[in-house]
Design the sequence.
């Protein structure tokens, strides 16, 4: 070791330069670095040997060794930069995103309630309906009064209404209080009122949305969804109502469905009815369209003359029908979900199982679901 000459160092330099050059990747390059400059690397050992050299030797070999160390370190750095560039180029080439390709499997799913509302919109828009909306926080006028609920009628309590805390400025006595009183809408029927007050007949709308009643058990949640329907014209009669709803259920359940209209009472329709569909229980599942049992799925009727008048329409000139149905219930029936409360628990496993691909649009041509 002590007989090393600067020429020997040149050989070492050439040797390491070749090995650095041949290092095919960053790992191999690091192996060369350790072999040369690591704690027990060849150059490091030589530097350690300087201490045992004579002062004359040291003057020659010291700078020469330092030069070698610097050169090898620089070669390694250069090679490292080149290899990193190459690695980045390779990654860029292999991980390129073609933004024009169709999207892969999406992460989220469409909630069954959303899916069912879209299916309904598809069916009714095919029949010439458009979609209307109203606020979740309604006033007493739109939710009750204009819909022909008498002022002290028990129906207001029957709906298990959530009343909003009145604003401090609000007069809290007399009939003014009721008029200004805000509620969480107990049904989507107030959208009927808003629509009739804002547009001229002929009217043909559905109004999907959230509704609220203070009720909670296996088949009731305080928030639920309804789809309202309203048709107003100069020659609309009960036959139109029946035909429209019969066509709807068959399209919705994608099979022929037998229906039955039972007389009922709603303050805002006269006559009023509930519509049942024929069904059969098959173990835990329910089959719509066959069997000998009847299940109620919606309320409907001819719009009451008082309601038309409240909206500024002449009942002698205009008639129409309205209906309202529970979306959650229809989703459970169509897609076999056993417990209503699971619908709103927000469990990703449930959504993964019952959810729908957001990329598949419901349509009458390609199938609703
Ligand atoms: N609003 C009624 C309910 O929530 C349903 C309904 C709507 C009935 C329209 C008749 C006409 O039960």
Sequence:
């Amino acid at each position: 070791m002590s007989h090393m000459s600067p020429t020997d160092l040149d050989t070492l330099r050439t040797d390491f330069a070749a090995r650095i050059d041949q290092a095919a990747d960053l790992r191999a390059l690091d192996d060369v670095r350790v072999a040369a400059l690591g704690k027990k690397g060849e150059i490091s050992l030589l530097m350690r040997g300087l201490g045992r050299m004579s002062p004359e030797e040291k003057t020659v070999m010291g700078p020469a060794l330092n030069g070698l160390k610097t050169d090898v370190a620089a070669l390694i750095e250069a090679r490292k930069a080149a290899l990193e560039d190459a690695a980045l180029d390779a990654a860029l080439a292999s991980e390129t995103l073609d933004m024009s390709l169709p999207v892969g499997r999406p992460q989220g799913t469409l909630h069954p309630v959303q899916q069912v509302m879209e299916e309904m919109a598809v069916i009714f828009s095919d029949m010439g309906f458009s979609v209307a909306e109203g606020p979740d926080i309604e006033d007493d006028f739109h939710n009750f009064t204009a819909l022909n609920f008498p002022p002290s009628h028990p129906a207001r309590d029957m709906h298990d209404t959530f009343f909003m805390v009145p604003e401090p400025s609000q007069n809290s006595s007399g009939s003014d209080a009721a008029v200004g009183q805000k509620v969480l809408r107990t049904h989507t029927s107030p959208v009927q009122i808003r629509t009739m007050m804002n547009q001229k007949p002929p009217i043909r709308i559905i109004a999907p949305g959230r509704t609220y009643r203070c009720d909670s058990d296996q088949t009731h949640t305080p928030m639920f969804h309804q789809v309202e329907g309203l048709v107003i014209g100069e020659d609309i009669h009960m036959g139109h109502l029946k035909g429209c709803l019969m066509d709807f259920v068959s399209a919705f359940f994608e099979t022929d469905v037998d229906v039955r209209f039972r007389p009922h009472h709603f303050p805002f329709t006269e006559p009023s009815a509930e519509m049942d569909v024929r069904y059969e229980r098959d173990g835990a599942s329910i089959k719509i369209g066959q069997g000998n049992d009847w299940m109620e799925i919606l309320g409907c009727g001819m719009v009451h003359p008082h309601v038309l008048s409240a909206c500024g329409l002449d009942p002698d000139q205009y008639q129409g029908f309205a209906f309202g149905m529970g979306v959650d219930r229809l989703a459970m029936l169509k897609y076999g979900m056993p417990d209503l409360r699971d619908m709103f628990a927000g469990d990703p496993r449930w959504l993964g199982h019952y959810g729908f691909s957001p990329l598949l649009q419901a349509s009458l041509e390609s199938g609703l679901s």
